[in-house]
Amino acid sequence: MVEVNQPVDGDAQTLEMLVNMGPQHPSTHGVFRMVLWVDGEKVVDAEPHIGYLHRGSEKLCEGEQYHQIVTLFDRLDYISNFNNELVYCRAVEKLMGLEIPERAEYVRVILCELNRIASHLLFLGTFGLDAGAMTPVMFTFRGRERIQAVFEAISGARMMHNYFRVGGVKEDLPDNFEQLIGGLLPDLRGDVEESDRLLTYNEVFIARSKGIGTISASDAMEYGLTGPCLRACGIPYDVRKAEPYSVYDRFEFDVPVGIDGDSWERYYVRVEEMYQSLRIVQQALDQIPQGPVSVMGRRLIRPPVGDVYVRSENPRGEIGVYLVSDGSDKPYRVKVRPPSFCNLSALRALLKDTWLADAVVILGSLDIVLGEVDR
């Protein structure tokens, strides 16, 4: 479709072309569609379209018993399975007033931070592809595969783990866990450092991402950005620090921040976060106590009548769960505050007046997962 504007300078005319990007385009990171109005190579306006992956997950929760809903949260942001399981279980536990065994808390933190590293490694590789670099994804998938193998050994599944339970975790760590994790952390650090050296200060990558898709701190807060997208603007907001949950207050770690809020800094904040997650995992392994890993057993879950809101920090930002109980074994209402959906709200502003070639980089820098956007 071509839209013709009013004549300028006699017979001369300006043309704006409407370009559909997605939902089948591989660089839209899932079934996402952008309608771009372009003047030559310049993006004049953009309109995001979502809903191609809508499954009604929040409504489905109302028909499932509390322990069955963990699998639905696995399938929201399918790159952050453990982090999503955690926030839901914490919501039910808060409603019930449950105190979780210390060992279970440490197991949860270890798995969530490894999940954060796996998610960021996937982002680093695919963002390199968005910018035209094909080699980094080979390195990052190697590191991610190491983590997936450990996840499979612990939960029985590479993804969709269904391992966290209301009151703790499904079962204790396997007998060979120390052997698994002992070789994992040094190798992971090497993978992160190698990928960092390969891409971060590559002059072509910097030219493709530095100064591209810039957003100010005030605008980022207005749009509701959280996670690396917000911290890249210089705001050190991390739920693990702002409102510590589980046993995060027992660990020393920093909150990486950027300055300019551009695509490169959104990338580099995630690189630095991987180093911090490695610090947290090592401290958790040093401190983890012996003991039980669950307080619930196989009892039917019936929280008292009431409602709660619980939030945590997943790899894409702040994820929140609003849970309403009517006293039965199924929730009356489950509502998710999704980080990818909120971060995506700024896309139109980020794309205006940029080059068409930069649209892919800007979208990739937000690191969205459509299963969580559409729900």
What do these coordinates show?
The chain has helices at residues 57-61, 70-74, 81-96, 102-130, 136-155, 177-199, 203-209, 217-223, 228-231, 239-242, 263-287, 339-344, 347-351, 356-366, 370-374; strands at 2-4, 15-21, 33-39, 42-49, 164-165, 168-169, 306-314, 317-325, 333-337. It is of the alpha+beta class and 375 residues long. The protein has a single domain (11-374), classed as Cytochrome-c3 Hydrogenase, chain B (Orthogonal Bundle). The protein has a four-stranded antiparallel beta sheet with strand order 1-2-3-4. α4 packs antiparallel against α11, α5 (136-155) packs antiparallel against α6 (177-199) and α6 (177-199) runs antiparallel to α11 (263-287). It starts with a strand and ends with a helix. The mean pLDDT is 87.
Describe this structure in a few short sentences.
The chain is α+β, with helices and mostly antiparallel strands. 46% of the residues lie in helices and 14% in strands. It has 15 helices and 9 strands.
What is the overall pLDDT average?
87
Which structural category fits the helices and strands? alpha+beta
Number of strands: 9
Question: Stretches where pLDDT falls below 50 for ≥5 residues?
Answer: none
Helix content: 40-55%
Shape: globular
Total individual domains: 1
Largest sheet: 4 strands, antiparallel
Please state the CA-atom Rg, rounded to the nearest Å: 22 Å
How far from one another are the termini?
31 Å
Beta content: 5-15%
> What is the tally of helical segments?
15
Question: Could you say what the CATH architecture is?
Answer: Orthogonal Bundle
CATH class: Mainly Alpha
Please identify the oligomeric state.
Answer: single chain
